[in-house]
Task: structure prediction
Amino acid sequence: MTMRMTMRKSLIALSCMLLCMAMNVHAQSMYMAKQYYNQGKYLEAAKELRPLADGGNAEAQVMAAKMFFEGKGVAKNVEQGMRYATMAADQCNEDGILLMATHYLGNMNDAKALSTLQHYTSQHPYLLKGKVGLKLASEVSHPLRRC
Result:
């Protein structure tokens, strides 16, 4: 085996190790955020969640959105909550889509809730078979049959 191939394999192995370590750190941060949240330590949960949410973790984005909607650990900020919910929804995260629709329904904006649900289900029809389809059928009186 040539020196060049050995170095290439070593570099690939090192890259894989670093990637695994980074994923483990994110998993631990998400775990800690959930623990803090469940314990009512919302400020600590927010500190763990923000980097994950800003880094594209859809689960963290949904949790951050809820915290901003409710003002838990952060100043209540509906716009910021919608920003995070939209970021999660744009990754086809059902909870993010449902959070957006529920927000609109809670503000008596059924038309916006319906258009949000229709927008994501038209782009990703498989969502109709899950929680989003059930929400669309039950909450907004859409003429879909429940499965």
In short: The chain has seven helices and no strands.
